[in-house]
Design a protein that fits this description.
16 helices; 478 residues; seven-stranded mixed beta sheet
Length: 478
């Protein structure tokens, strides 16, 4: 297989680079990356650029295989990858969604300023840690029976309304209203349901977190006002997904598709890209199961929201409650209209970023564009952006989803010192509540790319417009 180098990329626009289709004879479209020259060198070195070239060989792929500036090595698809497939003659690939189906981010806004909260941020972090279970395999206080699990899988966050865990106003502020209509609980493997039965309302481990934040910079006052953001405001960000249920669902369908590919005459350069035609029994089954797992993730973040609100009212109280600004998916495949046709858009470690006027954006935000929530690494800034016309034109309405890893988890543990990391976070003014030293090292800021540089790339490429910058006050991790 031809070796890829940074010199094989050609400039294709502001902060935009392409490996042309002629690079390899099996490529069906070019491979496009948003980034800086230094970022290109890094993604060639870690192998994620090669993965993107492999994605460009998928049957039915349209225009180009895309990667956001937070691209890094993943399973089959690079994390930060986007691929739009024609569902009439193209494929669906679990690797293009990822194991944590609908891993996503929700941002809650408060009526209080950081000055008003003061030193109560420590008590608030402690209360959230008590109220929201976290860690690998950790379950919550909700144990779902078979019938109720199926209801969660079918209805997503809508399930929570009937149990006073959500309001109709919450649903209006979630991507797709917190429910994907194509879900079929019967297509979710029983083992996946068993793994998720006790995990609703929990954040898990890895890069998942709950973070108390402060708005420190407003770039676009008009959009910030529309989003309910103002200087010095306290916000709370929730980052988690479908937990063990989504992981098991992906695992079983990857195996099934790996066995089925030969029946459909599909040959690919990497078995991790296992896929089948979208319009096939296996493809439809996976899509229905993926949508159901995504609904579990929406419900999970909603239950967590309810518990965070409880902690807020108990510790802060008297200043008003927390409102949902928005909730976005990261790992998902969706049927959407682009170029006046229906396409199946795989986003793996990428965020939807629809432009102003798109009917899928809630009416309250439609003139401003879809809110785009981009968390930083632990101890660094996060951003609120707004989807732009450039994303509609160039990236199938997609944007980056975070900073993107620079070091592997094992590399971070080898090269970083736990005590020094704790001192640095304390000096920066961040309260940390973590279940393990290992988990803290894996998610250290040094393990990730510079979030400010990543945001400047998507802003320069007109994939999204900067609205506000948020700094962490406290972070709760598994």
């Amino acid at each position: 297989m031809k070796k890829l180098t940074a010199a094989d990329f050609v400039a294709a626009g502001p902060a935009t680079w392409e490996v042309p289709r002629s690079f390899r004879e099996d490529m069906r479209v070019p491979a496009r990356v948003y980034g800086t020259p230094a970022m290109l060198e890094a993604i060639v070195a870690d192998g994620s650029a090669q993965q993107l070239v492999n994605v460009a060989t998928l049957p039915g792929i349209v225009h180009y295989a895309l990667a956001m500036p937070d691209i890094h090595l993943g399973y089959g698809f690079p994390i930060g990858g986007v691929a739009a497939i024609d569902p009439r003659d193209g494929v669906i690939s679990p690797g293009g969604v990822g194991y944590d189906i609908n891993c996503g981010v929700r941002l809650l806004t408060s009526p209080a300023t950081a000055a008003e909260i003061g030193d109560r941020v420590v008590a608030l972090a402690n209360q959230i840690q008590r109220d929201v279970p976290s860690g690998i395999g950790r379950g919550g206080r909700l144990a779902l029976g078979a019938a109720e699990m199926d209801e969660v899988l079918a209805r997503g966050a809508r399930w929570a309304v009937d149990r006073d865990l959500a309001t109709a106003d919450d649903l209006d502020r979630l991507e797709d209203g917190g429910c994907l209509a194509c879900a079929d609980p019967a297509r979710v493997p029983e083992r996946a349901k068993a793994r998720g039965a006790g995990q609703l309302g929990t954040i898990g481990a890895g890069n998942h977190f709950i973070e108390i934040q402060q708005v420190v910079e407003i770039f676009d006052p008009e959009r910030a006002e529309r989003f309910g953001l103002r200087a010095d405001q306290v916000t709370i960000m929730v980052h988690t997904g479908s937990r063990g249920l989504g992981h098991q669902t992906c695992t079983e369908y990857v195996r099934a598709m790996d066995r089925a590919m030969s029946r459909y005459g599909i040959l690919l350069p990497d078995r991790q890209l296992a896929c089948v035609p979208f319009d096939s029994p296996e493809g439809r089954d996976y899509f229905a199961a993926m949508c159901a797992a995504a609904n579990f993730a929406f419900a999970n973040r909603q239950v967590i929201t309810h518990r965070v609100r409880h902690a807020w009212d108990r510790i802060v109280g008297g200043v008003g409650g927390l409102e949902v600004l928005y909730d976005v998916c990261h790992n998902i495949a969706k049927l959407e209209r682009h170029d006046d046709r229906e396409l199946l858009v795989h986003r793996k470690g990428a965020t939807r970023a629809f432009a102003p006027g798109n009917p899928a954006v809630p009416a309250r935000y439609r003139d401003a564009g879809q809110p785009v929530l981009v968390p930083g690494s632990m101890g660094t800034a996060s951003y609120v952006l707004a989807g732009s016309e450039g994303a509609a034109t160039h990236s199938f309405g997609s944007c980056c989803h975070g900073a993107g890893r620079r070091l592997s988890r094992s590399g971070a543990k080898r090269s970083l010192d736990y005590n020094r990391l704790r001192r640095e976070l304390t000096d920066y003014g961040v309260v940390v509540r973590s279940g393990s030293a290992k988990g803290l090292l894996e998610e250290a800021p040094q393990a990730y790319k510079d979030i400010d540089e990543v945001i400047e790339v998507v802003h320069a490429a007109d994939l999204a417009r900067k609205v506000a910058r948020l700094r962490p006050l406290a972070v709760i991790k598994g």
